[in-house]
Structures are given as structure tokens and as C-alpha cells.
Design brief:
Layout lengths: L4 E6 L6 E6 L4 E4 L2 H7 L4 E7 L3 E5 L2 E6 L2 E5 L8 E4 L4 E5 L14 E2 L23 H11 L5
Parallel strand pairs: 3-10
Antiparallel strand pairs: 1-2, 2-5, 3-4, 4-9, 6-7, 7-8, 8-9
Family: Belongs to the Gfa family.
Protein name: GFA family protein
Keywords: Lyase, Metal-binding, Zinc
Length: 149
């Protein structure tokens, strides 16, 4: 185990908030079809932790995604926040829901038989910065006064 750190996180709209003690070495990518369907992505970045190590400051709603597990999410904005087996002391939270996810790196792939290989190593693809898309930036400025993070 690496050194545990405290992180905060929540959903896109701010309705759901949490504080968690995590071990960055427990970060991984899940490629199972249930996670792909639950998120609409080709994989999901998770960090495993004990249920006792997360405090929901404003609680999520829970979706029974199967007979053996459920997923916390925000019913207001739809943000997926994690995964938990019903009969386990552990659970996962989504890396993307952390307020500061930077520096967290995956340590393994789960459900590797379902990996969409073309999406794993994308380092050779051209990169486009959001700041270079002037029309989108102006739309945000006109609507809210600033460009979101």
C-alpha cells in the first residue's frame, strides 16, 4: 500500500459531495460491459477503497445495476460516482469525480477480455486544446461569463 491521501469529489452539478481516503495504488481501468453501458464509455477509471473510508457529505442516489451490485450517481445531473458489490466492505469511486484527479494513474486493467484496444494507447493521436476552439469558448462566455474548467 502506498500512502493514503484524502480527496474530495462530487458530481458535475454539485448536488452530491464526498470526502474519501484513498490509496492511489488502487486505481485501475474497468472494461467490463456493465461499466461500459453504465458510463457510455469504453472503460471507466476507478479507485478501490473501503466503504468506511468515504463520507458522503450530500448523498448520492443508488442504482441497483445487477442483483449483486449497485452504483452511486447523481439523480440531478447523471454523473456516475462509483460501484459497490452489495455484500462487500469495499467499493470503487470514479477517478473523474475527484475534484483533483490529476496525478492518479491506473495500475491494472480489469475485464481485460473486453478492452477496446484502439482506445487504450492514444498517445499518437493529434491533441486539440479547448482553448483553441474559439467559437465554443465564446458560447461559454456569452452564457456564463467564463469558460468552465
Amino acid at each position: 500500500m502506498t500512502e493514503a491521501i484524502e480527496k474530495t469529489g462530487g458530481c458535475q452539478c454539485g448536488k452530491v459531495r464526498y470526502r474519501a481516503t484513498i490509496d492511489p495504488a488502487q486505481a485501475y481501468l474497468c472494461h467490463c460491459r456493465m461499466c461500459q453501458r453504465a458510463t457510455g464509455g469504453v472503460s471507466i477509471a476507478f479507485i478501490g477503497l473501503q466503504k468506511a473510508d468515504i463520507a458522503w457529505e450530500s448523498g448520492p442516489d443508488w442504482y441497483a445495476s445487477s442483483p449483486i451490485a449497485r452504483r452511486p450517481f447523481c439523480s440531478n445531473c447523471g454523473t456516475p460516482l462509483g460501484f459497490a458489490f452489495n455484500d462487500s466492505e469495499g467499493m470503487d469511486i470514479t477517478v473523474g469525480s475527484l475534484d483533483e484527479p490529476y496525478g492518479i494513474e491506473p495500475h491494472w486493467h480489469f475485464a481485460s477480455e473486453k478492452i477496446h484496444e484502439a482506445w487504450v494507447d492514444t498517445s499518437n493521436l493529434p491533441r486539440k486544446k479547448i482553448t483553441d476552439y474559439e467559437k465554443l469558448n465564446q458560447m461559454w462566455i456569452d452564457a456564463t461569463g467564463s469558460v468552465p474548467e
